[in-house]
Specification:
The structure is a single chain. It contains 16 helices and 17 strands. With 418 residues, the protein is an alpha/beta fold. The chain folds into 3 domains: 172 residues, MoaB/Mog-like domain (Molybdenum Cofactor Biosythetic Enzyme, Chain A), CATH 3.40.980.10; 74 residues, Alpha-Beta Plaits, CATH 3.30.70; 158 residues, Maf protein (Alpha-Beta Complex). The strands form 4 sheets. The chain has a 6-stranded mixed sheet, sandwiched between helices. Helix 12 links the parallel strand 13 and strand 14. The two termini are 51 Å apart.
Amino acid sequence: MPAPKARLLLIGNELTEGRLTDKNGRFLAQELSEMGFEVDELRIVPDDLTLLREAMRSLYKSGIPLILSAGGLGHTSDDLTANAWAEVLGDTLEVSSSLLAHLREGLRKRGYPELPFLEVYAKVPRKGEAIPNPAGLAPALVWEFPDQFVAALPGPPHELQSLWHEAIRPRLHRKFLPKAPRQVTFRTTGITESRLSEQIQAWEKQLPPSIHLSYGPSWEGVSLHLRAPADLPEELFTSQANQLRELLKPYLFAEGPSSLAEALLQALKKKQHTLAIAESCTGGHIAATLVEIPGASDVLLGGIVAYSNSAKETLLNVSSNDLRNYGAVSEPIARAMAEGVRQRFGAAYGIATTGIAGPSGGTDEKPVGTVWIGIATPVETSARKFIFPGDRSAIIGRATATALSLLWQNLHRPPQTL
């Protein structure tokens, strides 16, 4: 049975003008793909009624089974989604007294006064329904037809995700996916996409046509997603997945949605090791990435953002002579920072970053993007040099992911190579 198709419509001037980075499209596409849908289009339109109607009409008339829109469900003049969908679907909206009472009660419990525009959020489609928002005001609007499902979701990512998990995803499972596809995602780090492709080339050539492999490179590493129809024999899928798992073993940090930060914290906790972090060019980004994970306090003892040379000397015991002779962006300083923070916190491991994130400050010898990453362990201290491409944000993101990757690789080396 072919996978049901889905299309996404993202709405807002903030997206088309580049003022905000889209998070909803990525989230929904990942969720739908994992469920077994084939997302064949993601469209972004501004808050323009003519363009919005045109996009909605073409999506609806295409006969695509699933259409999800995100954004434009507020009470301001640029929130056009609800009325536009109602018009395209031949529907009307009317205030629901029960939903209005629900919204009033929600505000009262949170200690807010009643809002003058609350009735806007209480409008329900006559041919559809409104699903109350557990994290905000704007409900999801849903139209369920025999062969199509249309849902309009609010734009704030935390609201959209709450509605998705509590209401939309379960409905889609019941309507479209009585049987989920067979699938598994392998997350790797420490190997490039080209090298990984070469390593599994022979296995990939013998892969049955009913099993699809896709690559997903990121700063953390490369994800490999293996997927097959639900009616494929389980033994065949499991056999192929096991073969791929074995080929990826030296680089495999997780299966499923786990991040590299989660995998690293789990590995440190399993070995009963602690970690401390010294950051210069990443400015606390490594620590922030780790503390987003529940339970990080079991492993992470603390961190120091030592941006200036004096901070490196005072807080991390970096030699002033080394700073003068080699410069802050150098191997000796990265090593000294990693060892200094490890000793200061009494941690088993220390990570350090020092580099030039740009856009200025680079030289011919040390161009923008030059980053030294130091790793201090119970038995050795080392540092590696990288030259990362991209703007300041990209360089910081790449340096953060690479530092986590290097420590994960260090933890998984065979003991004899330490």
